């Protein structure tokens, strides 16, 4: 059940991220094209590109929690390689810390979105909360992925031998 | 000083305990705010978003995407084939070729990990079939990747120039000679290692027609750096926009060569999303960290504590190099620049050192940090690409690390390496 | 000092800089008035953040005080855009007369207070002028088709479109390269910024177009303001008033000094012959912004200026 929810989140986040990457490329291409080739700039392309970029980054960063894709100094974990249960316990503590970190971002990111609902972006005049929403939405994915990792770790520690 | 000790103790503990770097940075801020109550916690998400929401950082996913497209679209393979046919007869040539490919690729992307991933996929098998062990190959590849951010264009240098108010093109020009010098040092190191192993290179003979054919096949790829650098210097686009041009060009070329399928394209996009998100998320967390440092006056405190020791140029340069190598060990380059350059560089300028020289020294020293354990993005990427353990990559990279340290000292004490080319061009 | 507040701004810590001058004058006067009980710690170079995030910071209670340029306020409270309209003020006297008019700015400052930010006073950021390569600007015809870099502020971009230019919104960090390599023909900034950012070295012409006036405010988080005694509040307001008076003189002297210096170093500086043509073309956007700003406010300001 948890795994299904988690898979769904990661697939959705990845799908949206890929679309956002396309938006970044198209927006910046249009910026060069209209300025240099058509000699008339389309305004707002840089704001669109940055909007897509921050969203892509937060969604992508949440996927990295599940795939263990975040950069890490793994000396301690590597040294525990021969003791699977100890290694998993160590990872369990790390995943709990990630959960706490992500939860702080989620909670206060949500407050931030509420606070900036009336504020408009400088170029296109869209509510700033639309941009800031990437923070709690990304953090939500991080929280879910950290929980999924925690559950996996606990299963392994409890004597799972499937690895 | 208590503030400084609290936040750095938390940061180092979390990093070495094995918490991912981005979360280590964020959690040290969370812990610091819980202990001191200096600012409300909402500053963390706000500064994270603002740290990421910066136009020049668009170059990170775009250059990374260009790198993956070159790998997936078979462009890297054409380049490698061309270089192999031209230089295959030299002792240790496969290693030399890898370094040359990295140099070439470095001119296209600003990203070390992208260089490692793109060249590694092709050169690891080629090297291991030519007498290299996997450890040697992985170490060499990680080192070659350090050329990525040194040879222009470079994300680290865009960030540095932006932070310290230098001109980006001048800085790129200043980095050109240092990049080539480091490439040569790596080639020398590789040749010495290979000759000492006593393996003779294979002697393949190619006809002029074969050689010309392979150059012809690679011609489209060779045009990419001309397009990127020519576009920036020709006033068509900005360095960030150049990253888009590189990605779009690599896409078109990959499609034209009929090697880029929809599946490969989506694969490249997915890799781009996670690779760049990892880096950008560190940038965001670092912005929160940096703001808290500033609000707690920590940079000034540290600078004041160091000041008595920084009274002459030689001591200053040596301390700067040592400090940055240590920082490069544990921190990501972009955040190190944003946090530390404004504190450390004004002291050097006060001592009469050149701002551009210091900028190049600062950037290359941090980039050497990419290949210094325990924290080095290139080491992680190379371990992943070559399918060897982190410890083995570290063993393989050691000789190149020594070459890099000699290089850093050269840059520190021979400013002409950095300053002559821009001066000749009147920049 | 019993209380110390951090005052952030986005300019440099140079003695020549008007924001820094304002901050220093304010800090000194406040120290004097309070007998040293309130200290100000000035934080320059955007180290506390850009203007958008410092304003948000004051609302959230993470930033104590800041100098905020008028064009950053429009995102939070659109009525401030009335001062961002092109050629709203033709000279400094017009600008000062409106900004010092409590009937106009009083209620606007009250609105900011309700948003969590107390405005203490106005500084003079100067008029913005075009600096470019290719040709000087003497009329709307000259500006036609020129690629001018603008900050990402809709009203600024629309004004330049109306004046016939091809406005392009680049990040400021990419603009120097873009001007140097000819990606854009030029940009527009206040004189002191043109001087401090080195654009005079890479541009041929500075035309004194004076298209936008750029006031800035000294602001404090309302959450802090409310904890101050009435006496302390009085000191703050008095120090701000003193800083405003001193800085208005300072900026005019400095601008002349900068123009002379840049001209001596080879920058061609010109008064704009047909400023009317620019003002007339630009005024077409007034109606577009009347709704956001408020027709009443716009009409009142225009009436007071005799337009
Ligand atoms: Na590069
Ligand atoms: Na390192």
From TrEMBL, chain A:
Location in or out of the cell: Cell inner membrane
Transmembrane intervals: 12-33, 53-80, 92-110, 130-151
Every Tripartite ATP-independent periplasmic transporters DctQ component domain range: 25-155
Organism: Jingyaoa shaoxingensis
Pfam family, one: DctQ
Entry keyword annotation includes Signal: no
Keywords: Cell inner membrane, Cell membrane, Membrane, Transmembrane, Transmembrane helix, Transport
Family statement drawn from the similarity comment of this UniProt entry: Belongs to the TRAP transporter small permease family.
Name this polypeptide is given: TRAP transporter small permease
Membrane topology qualifier: Multi-pass membrane protein
TrEMBL record, chain B:
Compartment(s) of residence: Cell inner membrane
Annotated InterPro entries: DctM (IPR010656), TRAP_DctM (IPR004681)
Keyword Cell inner membrane: yes
Keyword Kinase on entry: no
Transmembrane region(s): 6-38, 50-70, 97-125, 137-160, 172-195, 215-236, 242-260, 272-296, 316-345, 357-380, 400-425
Keywords from the named record: Cell inner membrane, Cell membrane, Membrane, Transmembrane, Transmembrane helix
Listed NCBIfam families: dctM
Protein name per UniProt: TRAP transporter large permease
Species this chain originates from: Jingyaoa shaoxingensis
